[in-house]
Amino acid sequence: MLTQLSNTSRFALLTLLAICFSGCTSIPMPKGNSKGYSTVRFIAPNAPLGADDQPAFVAANSMIKKSINAQVEKNGLKMVNGKADLIVAHLIILQDNVSTSYSNQYFGLQDYSDIVAFAHKKGMKQHYPEAIQKRVLVIDLIDAKTYKLVYRNYALTGTLANQSVADQEMYIDTLVAEILQQFFK
Questions:
Q1: Domain range for 75
Q2: Residue 72 within a domain
């Protein structure tokens, strides 16, 4: 999965994320499971896929939603548009040597700004010997009755530029499956 990044970039990204998520007590990372749930819906099913000036976010959000839907159905839950047991949300974070951006159209909990700010703070402390771009996909599953975060996980992503649409979709399918694997055990 990380084969598209150089060894230095891989090391920097893995270091950043290990510090970011496992070492940060202020960002909850619950690891609930699918037991007791039968239906799932997206946090904002009719939200725009991204800003018109950021077509990469539009394409990525579309592929991520499609992949989440497939993983949910594959693992025995039903994706619905109305009332559901679980709400699924996702956040995309992009970071290079000088800036951090994100797409949160489909992220429901308000702590996305904490996650992005923490990633930015930690990422800007790093000194990389080359220009790199780091990407993270975060997926949340929220109990629809209590609005309690049941499960949060993330995956590291390489660049999708210069790949065919089919390869991009396959890559995102792999990321989403990796993120949700523990939830469906």
A1: 2-180
A2: yes
Cβ atoms of 43 and 106 closer than 8 Å: yes
Question: Would you say the C-alpha torsion 98, 100, 118, 136 has a positive or negative sign?
Answer: negative
Q: Which amino acid is at 75?
A: N
| pLDDT above 60 (res 135) | yes
- Whether pTM > 0.85 for this model: the answer is no
% the chain with pLDDT above 70: 69
- Return the higher-pLDDT residue of 115 and 185: 185
- Domain assignment present for 56: yes
CATH number at residue 137: 3.30.160
pLDDT digits over 91-109, tens only? 888 877 777 777 776 676 6
Q: What are phi and psi of 151, to 5 degrees?
A: -150, 135
Q: What angle do CA 83, 173, 135 make, to 5 degrees?
A: 100
Question: Which residues touch 22 (CB under 8 Å, ≥6 apart)?
Answer: 29
Of the chain, the end-to-end C-alpha distance in Å amounts to 22
Number of domains observed in the structure of the chain: 1
Residue 185 placed within a domain = no
- The answer as to whether 89 is a domain residue is yes
Residue 180 in this model has a pLDDT that exceeds 90: yes
Cα–Cα nearest to 65, from 28, 92, 83: 92
